[in-house]
Amino acid sequence: MSDAMFRFGLVGAGTHGLRAVIPAFETSAGCRLEAVADTSPARLDALPPSLRRYASLEAMLASEALDGVYIATLPDTHCELALACFRHGLHVICEKPLATTLEEAQRMAEAALAARRELVVMFEYRFLPHYEKIREWIASGRIGRVEAIHLQQLRKHPVAQPRRTNLLNAAGSLDCGIHRLDLARFWTGGARWETVHALGTWFEEPVKKPPHISILARLANGVMVTLNESFSYGYRLKRMPYTFSKNSLAIVGSHGVIHDVGGGRAGYELVTQEGSETVPFIKTSHRDEIPKVLDAFARFLNGRDDARLAFAEDGLEAQRIVDQANRDACISRADDSSFHHHPATLALS
């Protein structure tokens, strides 16, 4: 008996929805996109003619027989949209971060549980071959006990871009950094975040969350994690290309290390007393990555688990550290009278 094909609607036909999500459904073997909802008539007009289109999520849900909905809107709308989907008994695949606050993310997770439906977070980095290999090296004990993970992604985004401003107001530079925070958990067994400290830099930008942040955190399994993340690398250098970035990775174990080669662009190297091994970096796009998540979810719904899928608990843990780090950075920014550590930097409850 062949696997079932699952029918999805998409809410959000903006840049990401049109350029990444819709093409991803076209190559998915397990999920088919039936319809799209968006409040913009212009965006609906730009859709492929094969897709039915609606001016609101509610109109789409009232007219379509769907199994699930993919939410590709800005984070401040995720909670309301997901709750509507769960009320209709549908699964939800949601872009990261789940919401703009932990409280909203918890409401989404509770609604999914009450509806007996799944809430999947689009942490597609888990499906990249080089990151899967890093997880395999760690899980097989190649570097012994993991003690620390150091991550860095500094990159430039066009300052005047409205989408960048919206993302910074919602999650700061952790809109992208959330992927690396999730990988730290994914690589080391999925422990809860225990302690978080952070400092941020805004330059002169009038945005709510820091466009440049440094985090020092610890997972409940004892692994220390540091992250430097930026949307503002080379902030005022107009000649720097959009894709310009400075990335690094170092995982420190009791019997070896894993580190990047060429800023991660060449690959990653495992180094132990017995020798070394390298996995190449394989460049992909969202069009390549999202279908892997869609197909893994389809297999899950057909009864086959996939450890790479990120569900509500993973989204909540990511939201917890993003909220705490941004809050800590904002508090530290306000306390500019001295360099002493601010007492509001507390362990997570």
* Major beta-sheet overview: 8 strands, mixed
Total individual domains: 2
Tell me the number of helical segments per DSSP (H or I, 4 or more residues long): 10
Beta-strand share of residues: 25-35%
Strand order within the widest sheet?
A: 8-9-10-7-11-12-13-14
Q: By CATH's scheme, which homologous superfamily of the largest domain applies?
A: Dihydrodipicolinate Reductase, domain 2
Uncertain runs with pLDDT below 50, 5 residues or more?
337-347
CATH class of the largest domain: Alpha Beta
- Structural class, from secondary structure content? alpha/beta
> Strand-and-helix sequence, N→C?
EHEHEHEHEHEHEHHEEEEEEEHH
Helix content: 25-40%
CATH architecture heading of the largest domain: 2-Layer Sandwich
What is the CA-based Rg, rounded? 20 Å
CATH topology of the largest domain: Dihydrodipicolinate Reductase, domain 2
Q: Overall mean pLDDT score? A: 92
What does this protein structure show overall?
With 349 residues, the protein is α/β, with parallel strands linked by helices. Helices cover 35% and strands 25% of the residues. An 8-stranded mixed β-sheet has the order 8-9-10-7-11-12-13-14. It has a 6-stranded parallel β-sheet with strand order 3-2-1-4-5-6, sandwiched between helices. The chain is globular, with a radius of gyration of 20 Å. 41% of the residues are buried. The C terminus is likely disordered.
